[in-house]
Amino acid sequence: MKAFIFDMDGVIIDSEPIHFDIDVKTMNFFGVTISPHELDEFVGMTNPEMWKILKQKFNLLHSVSDIIEYQLSSKIELIRTNEIGPINGIYELILELKKHNIVLGIASSSPIKFINEVLLKFKILDYFDCIVSGEEVAKGKPEPDVYLEAARLLGVDPSECIVLEDSRNGIQSAKSAGMKCIGFINKNSGNQDLSKADIIVNSIRDIKVTDL
Q: Is residue 11 within 8 Å of 183, Cβ to Cβ?
């Protein structure tokens, strides 16, 4: 292993409940009632991909960009105004990886603006050697584009990368990129099939860098 690449939502920040809550409220704002459970399938997907499907499914009249603008501003306001910390064990894992001279990346489906807000709030932005948003590549997760771009920016072969993911779409993305993947069981991320991961853990603290 030369590089360790983190997904962000549900891995660094327990943000899926935030996403579910704001996305339900966004749908309500635009005139549709939906339950959080109906959004499970979109975990790991980019905003444009998700809202394109929802706009068509529910015949939303507003543009995808208008919907995302409302949704993203709501999420950023919540991040800025609430006491939120990283998932238990993340600080320690980052420091342990750095101690072993492993380069670190973020490959997230979230918009770059939201990624930066989270990493700045947790004071961990400077630990990462590259940050890639799924909105910056041709196709988001479950396609491999975001992980391949992260490997390119880190200057390593995909086979030398280990990924930490919490969603079916994310694991599919990492495996399609030719990377080893750790599946983290986060119950707040909905009903996710992690069976394609190489390793599955119940806690970030279960990841032992010397065993990878």
A: no
Q: What is the pTM of this model?
A: 0.88
Strand order in the sheet with 161-165: 130-133, 103-108, 3-6, 161-165, 180-184, 199-201
Q: How far apart are CA 21 and CA 4, in angstroms?
A: 30
Q: Residues 91-113: pLDDT tens digits?
A: 999 999 999 999 999 999 999 99
Both tokens assigned to 56: 């068509």
More confident residue, 117 or 44: 117
Q: Residues 115, 103: contact at Cβ < 8 Å?
A: no
Give the DSSP per-residue string, the chain: --EEEE--BTTTB--HHHHHHHHHHHHHHTT----GGGGGGGTTS-HHHHHHHHHHHHT--S-HHHHHHHHHHHHHHHHHHS---PPTTHHHHHHHHHHTT-EEEEEESS-HHHHHHHHHHTT-GGG-SEEEEGGGSSS-TTSSHHHHHHHHHHT--GGGEEEEE-SHHHHHHHHHTT-EEEEE--GGG-S---TTSSEEESSGGG--GGG-
